[in-house]
Design goal:
The chain has 14 helices and 22 strands. By secondary structure, it is α+β, with helices and mostly antiparallel strands. It folds into three domains: 265 residues, FAD/NAD(P)-binding domain (3-Layer(bba) Sandwich); 97 residues, Alpha-Beta Complex (Flavocytochrome C3, Chain A, domain 1); 81 residues, Methane Monooxygenase Hydroxylase, Chain G, domain 1, CATH 1.20.58. The strands form six sheets. The protein has a five-stranded parallel beta sheet, with helices on one face. Strand 9 and strand 10 form a beta hairpin. Helix 4 crosses helix 11 and helix 13 packs antiparallel against helix 14.
Length: 479
């Protein structure tokens, strides 16, 4: 069970990395609970790429930079958009079936995009189709094996180098470890993420001493299904791209539906407060039942299961935690600040998303940077004899305490210094690692930018046009 390469996470980024690593040695891909349960499986809207006739890579780059609100790393963005088209072609060559109009790929538009550049599969199951394609490709390679664990505990270190990880008490050694553990949305009370998205990768890396960056930037998706007893099922932004309107209980529109997600989410929160309502409504009935059923089959059937027929009635919606722009700090090749440790996908922070992710860039990031991290980590030198002798945990972590209501109330869509300070004190006592990182960095960023909104600092500040960085036993710095 000691492979050359250990990939933790079986979503799009982890699978793409594993495919690359298989050329350099044996690869073990491990996942928490289930190999097929990841945020990738739930990604509905699509994957953004400049491939249509009226689009250009430079326009995709420009839209991403604008959405990132001054904090995108330009080199990371350029890498994403320039390598995107070939990454999509590779997926098609491996069997990915994107929706088409005749023989041509079908593109749609989502918020803050200046062109129709969103590819989708089976209407609204794009992430599932890409994950399926990559899983079958990885599973066909003789060097790749898969395993699931109930708990992923910690990284193994030897002389400051990451050399494996422990899984429920079982140690697995490797010459390189690649984190692709996904997001952290479930630390909040309301989230569109699967239950496994609890920020484990960020916590593991932080406890081992890795740098964590921009963790205060959490994107809250404006439109999650808000039906009592139902999960906060994501109602894709693509619905608004196809004309869905946001209305209050009096059927009045109150915002620009295609504004950036942070703007729309705050508009919904303010409207809910103004009208003392637990939700607003997303209305696509004017497009007709047949269109909705054909274009969004998964969303249509899921809503119907919870008593909402999108063809004849608006869906009650409210914002929910959706995506983490920050994470384990990496360079463009997936290297973290710890030798032997790499990261890709939502767990990583390359700077590509800045303060606010552009819709449908996440799947593209997983594919592009998953490949790059795989290429780079494949070059990690082979272990010398005895390297893993005496490998030890970086310290026993405190019991993880979930505080979703506290995070929702104190560190949610609209924040204040007082609430964040209260959260820091409570989370520190509780030993809630990821939650405390979010609260500490949000408290330190005394401005509003992108998905981070401070009521007491409502404007952007030139002094904070930098990335937050936090490390074990150190305070928050801005670089």
């Amino acid at each position: 069970m000691d492979p050359d390469f250990l990939v933790i996470g079986a979503g799009v980024a982890g699978l793409r990395a594993a495919i690359e690593l298989a050329e350099a040695g044996t690869v073990l891909v491990v996942a928490k609970d289930s190999l097929r349960e990841s945020s990738s499986e739930y990604a509905q809207g699509g994957i953004a790429v400049a491939l249509s006739d009226d689009d250009e890579v430079s326009l995709h780059e420009q839209d991403t930079l604008l959405a990132g609100d001054g904090l995108c790393d330009r080199a990371a963005v350029r890498t994403l958009v320039e390598e995107g088209p070939s990454a999509i072609q590779e997926l098609i060559d491996w069997g990915a079936e994107f929706d088409r109009e005749g023989s041509r790929l079908a593109f749609t538009r989502e918020a803050a995009h200046s062109r129709n550049r969103i590819l989708h599969a089976h209407g609204d199951s794009t992430g599932r189709e890409i994950a399926r394609t990559l899983y079958h490709k990885a599973a066909s390679l003789p060097n790749v094996t898969f395993r699931s664990f109930a708990a992923i505990t910690d990284l193994l270190l030897h002389d400051g180098v990451v050399c494996g990880a422990t899984f429920g008490g079982e140690a697995i050694n490797a010459r390189a470890v690649l984190l692709a553990t996904g997001g952290l949305g479930c630390v909040f009370l309301n989230s569109t993420n699967p239950e496994v998205a609890t920020g484990d990768g960020v916590a593991m890396a932080y406890r081992a001493g890795a740098e964590i960056s921009d963790i205060e930037f959490v994107q809250f998706h404006p439109t999650a299904l808000a039906v009592e007893g139902a999960p906060r099922f994501l109602l894709s932004e693509a619905l608004r791209g196809e004309g869905a309107l946001l209305k209050n209980a009096q059927s009045e529109r109150f915002t620009d539906e295609l504004a950036p997600r942070d703007v729309v989410a705050r508009a919904i929160v303010n409207e809910m407060k103004r009208t003392a309502s637990p939700n607003v409504f997303l209305d696509l009935t004017h497009r007709g039942d047949a269109f909705i059923r054909d274009r969004f089959p998964r969303i249509y059937e899921t809503c119907l299961r919870y008593g909402v027929n999108l063809g004849v009635q608006p869906a009650p919606v409210a914002p929910a935690a959706h995506y983490a722009m920050g994470g384990v700090r990496t360079d463009l090749e997936g290297r973290t600040s710890l030798p032997g440790l790499y990261a890709a996908g939502e767990v990583a922070c390359t700077g590509v998303h800045g303060a606010n992710r552009l819709a449908s860039n996440s799947l593209l990031e997983g594919v592009v940077f998953g490949k790059r991290a795989g290429v780079c980590s494949a070059g990690t030198p082979a272990r010398r004899a005895g390297t893993n002798a005496g490998a030890m945990l970086p310290g026993s972590p405190p019991a993880r305490v979930s505080a979703p209501q506290l995070m929702w109330d104190k560190c949610g869509i609209i924040r204040t210094g007082e609430a964040l300070q209260q959260a820091c004190e409570a989370l520190d006592k509780a030993g809630a690692t990821v939650e405390l990182l979010i609260a500490r960095c949000a408290l330190a960023r005394r401005e509003s930018r992108g998905a981070h909104y401070r009521l007491d600092y409502p404007d952007k500040s030139a002094g904070f046009e930098k990335h937050s960085v936090i490390q074990k036993d150190a305070g928050v710095t801005f670089r």
